[in-house]
Amino acid sequence: MTRVEQAKLKSEYPVVIIGGGQAGLCVSHYLKKANIEHVILEKEPELTHAWRRKRWDNFTLVTPNWQCLLPEHPYMGHQPDGFMKKNEIVEYLDQFIEKLNPPAILGVAVQHVEKVADQSFVIETDRGTTTAKQLVVAAGGYHTPIYPKLSSALPENVTVIHSEQYFNAEQLPAGNVLVVGSGQSGAQIAEDLHLAGKKVYLSTGDAPRCARFYRGKDVVKWLFEMGYYETTVKDHRYSEEVRNSTNHYVTGRDGGRDIDLRQFALEGMQLLGRFQDYKDGQLVFRPDLMQNLDMADATYNRINAGIDAYLAENGIETDEPASVYEPVWTAQAEITEIDLVAENITSIIWCIGFRPDYSWIDLDLFETNGYPKHDRGITLDPNVTFIGLPWLHTWGSGRFLDIAKDAEFVAAHIKQQLDMPNSRLSPVIADAVEV
């Protein structure tokens, strides 16, 4: 890991960035270029902590390496169309950190933020208090793991973990495993366990899926050429609701491939509908397995059909003809209850997401669901910005693809705010933010 020469906490800063992941680092990059003094406060003992400690061993990027475009640090390896593994991602980030040499303080937890009469922010940490004129929240949105409410307590001998705690099959006890949730993490963790020889019970949800390759190219490359990654929240057909959408499941493992849950079922994985409850020794599921699979396949085919239309409209020929996915497996009956003991399920992995926790920010900036109200990261208080959230501005936001663009915009806004301290709202966003 790249060593970071830690700064000392001063009594005041023009800008404080809370969070030392790639989002906060990208903002730091542009602030340094603008010669704006700032500091990154990171609660963990290392920068980019989640990539290092909260990914399973066989984790790979889902998007191809050529989309890794951190500022002045594009992917320069030999596999632009490949998918970096966990250790390669960490190495890529370490190289960026070494180039940046950010002003960071590690192992410092921000406990409370409020605004005082002179319009500065008072930031209380476990190492003392500082103030800032501009606050950048780069702490992400995945804070509190979600666990369902159960009618009965699970037996103490059952190992229960969340997706962020899973690393490999060896950490689990002998016996079978239930994975709850079929989004990107759930589907890939189920595959990881399946390939390791575990008997997997997978509780599905409404996550969509897409092909890895189609008509001779990675689907991501087609969608990029079609302009999908430039689609903004405002231009999307679901508008801001898209921020609540579940990502398509697919994998970059072994060079990239589809994740076909029906194929897993043919190979012995037990597929189930959405998890509902645990009661009196019985795991209870909704009778919606086939509905979930059919919906995922419909999205898969719809994306491919969109690519077909794009190729036809632009006269692009490929060696691979158009095709439609046909189900390779269908459930004979919906299973809605299984006995935990009888099925020898000794571990459960919850892959049902996270809730945001910004309770330490004592500012009126949030929706009822806990997410910040913002436009392109700029909140109702123009001196508070957020960075690194999914769909902050485009589909590429929150990913290595567009995080630099988001950070550059935020940094430009901060510079204008600092240059115009008496102006309530920067002209860059005066017409964009609803107040």
UniProtKB/TrEMBL annotation:
It comes from the Bacteria. Pfam families: Pyr_redox_3. Gene3D superfamilies: FAD/NAD(P)-binding domain. Keywords: Oxidoreductase. One of its GO terms (molecular function) is monooxygenase activity. This is MSMEG_0569 family flavin-dependent oxidoreductase. It comes from Acinetobacter bouvetii.
